[in-house]
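FAQ

Q: What does a record look like?
A: Structure on top, sequence underneath. For example:
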């Protein structure tokens, strides 16, 4: 592992440690602003994906957006035509804004929202879809002008974003969690190695079990933690102090 990639991984885990000690959603915003700057991000938002009956401003959890852009986006109801939001509803994988498809000729409003965002230094972005097992949909979307997005930085950023969402959710709606103690020692081990960036094949070799068994433990952990994917399971396991790195 190169020194640079090691530094990104270290920053991700230090970021998680700092979030654990924060007392409010406002301080989470401040910490996110400081840490995401390392990747070139200037603005971000954590929001639910509104139903047809909901307004965009009703489902926003946390944001660091230019005030004028938030007002324009809300007034124009851009959430209904935003290609980034549309892709969020249809994938569980993080993606760059440039990967959200739209047709400029047949979808002029989609082109409009992407073009107008650039006026507020929101040229490029990275989005983390959130899908809860009870049907809840949300996303954490980040943007800037000169972003550091590569195969080296994305895994760290993915974990940081997921943990930030989980921490914000916990602070805004502090419901007790039941069932975390149901994780078996082997499930905790597989999540720990996943947090360290190991694949199922790598983890199987380390633990002396098959790749298929590792995958089964990860799937079981996701079900018990109410997580939609491995990264969310890792974030929740770390939040509940079930694993440590």
């Amino acid at each position: 592992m190169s020194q640079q990639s090691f530094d990104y991984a270290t920053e991700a885990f230090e970021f998680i440690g700092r979030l654990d000690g924060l007392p409010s959603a406002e301080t989470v915003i401040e910490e996110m602003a400081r840490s995401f700057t390392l990747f070139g991000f200037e603005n971000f938002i954590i929001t639910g994906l509104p139903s047809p009956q909901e307004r965009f401003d009703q489902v926003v959890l946390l944001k660091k957006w230019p005030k004028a852009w938030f007002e324009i986006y809300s007034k124009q109801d851009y959430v209904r035509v935003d290609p980034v939001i549309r892709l969020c509803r249809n994938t569980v994988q993080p993606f760059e804004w440039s990967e959200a498809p739209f047709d400029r000729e047949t979808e002029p409003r989609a082109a409009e929202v992407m073009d107008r965002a650039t006026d507020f230094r929101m040229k490029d972005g990275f989005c983390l879809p959130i899908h809860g097992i009870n049907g809840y949909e949300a996303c954490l979307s980040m943007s800037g002008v000169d972003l550091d997005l590569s195969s080296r930085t994305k895994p760290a950023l993915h974990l940081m974003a997921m943990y930030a969402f989980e921490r914000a959710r916990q602070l805004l709606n502090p419901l007790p969690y039941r069932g975390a103690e149901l994780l078996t020692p082997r499930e905790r081990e597989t999540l720990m190695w996943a947090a360290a960036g190991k694949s199922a094949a790598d983890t199987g070799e380390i633990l002396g079990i098959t790749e298929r068994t590792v995958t089964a433990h990860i799937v079981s952990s996701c079900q018990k933690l109410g997580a939609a994917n491995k990264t969310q399971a890792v974030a929740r396991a770390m939040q509940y102090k079930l694993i440590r790195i």
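Q: Is there anything notable about this one?
A: Residues 180-239 form a domain with the Arc Repressor Mutant, subunit A fold (CATH 1.10.10.10).
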